[in-house]
Design goal:
- With 177 residues, this protein is an alpha+beta fold.
- Helices cover 25% and strands 19% of the residues.
- The chain contains four helices and eight strands.
- The chain has helices spanning 22-28, 73-79, 109-113, 138-162; strands at 10-13, 16-18, 42-44, 52-57, 63-66, 92-96, 103-107, 127-130.
- The strands form two sheets. Strands 5-4-8-6-7 form a five-stranded mixed sheet, sandwiched between helices. The chain has a three-stranded antiparallel sheet with strand order 2-1-3, with helices on one face.
- The two termini are 19 Å apart.
Length: 177
């Protein structure tokens, strides 16, 4: 059993998200999964030992929340300080599963707040993303969520490596080191 969630791992190259199926790479050595590692590449292998939910985008305190059994979308958004004034909360994205091939649920949080729709139960590893404006294509919303996450991780890890006592830049996403 691996100590990293290989299905949620990814590579950042020059600020761009590169999906890699690390599980297939390690279990079969498949040529299709091989990719040379270049100087400056950042490989993110999240730990399986701690469950987190990431709340990103147009919220007051973007952060990773520890998942402890049960957490709903509204509770996660409240823990992140609620929406910023420019938030477009009619298309909040919940990204679940592998970052290489995520499933996406788009939620109108106004419907939940007004009790027209039930609150959404989040799962360990979910990424909640609040956009600043409506997205015309769901694919664009998913891509924005995933790239926001990968940029946050890479900036914070770069800052941590470059300084003896770094302060997180922008969004602080702990990576289980």
């Amino acid at each position: 059993e691996y100590l990293a969630a290989l299905e949620k791992a990814f590579l950042l190259r020059d600020g761009e998200f590169v999906p890699i199926d690390f599980d297939t790479l390690l279990s079969t050595g498949s040529q299709l999964s091989r990719l040379p590692i270049l100087p400056g590449d950042f490989i993110y292998l999240p730990s399986t030992s701690k469950g987190e939910i990431f709340v990103l985008g147009s919220v007051n305190r973007p952060q990773a929340l520890r998942f402890q059994g049960s957490l709903t979308l509204l509770k996660a958004l409240a823990a992140a300080g609620g929406f910023r004034p420019e938030a477009y909360f009619k298309q909040v994205a919940i990204v679940r599963g592998s970052l290489a091939s995520p499933s996406l649920l788009v939620v109108d949080v106004a419907q939940i707040i007004e009790a027209h729709t039930a609150d959404i139960q989040l799962a360990e590893g979910d990424m909640v993303f609040v956009p600043e404006h409506p997205m015309r294509r769901v694919h664009d919303l998913a891509w924005l969520a995933v790239t926001s996450f990968t940029r946050s991780v890479s900036v914070n890890e770069g800052s941590r490596l470059a300084s003896d006592s770094p302060e997180p830049i922008g969004i602080n996403i702990p990576v289980g080191l």
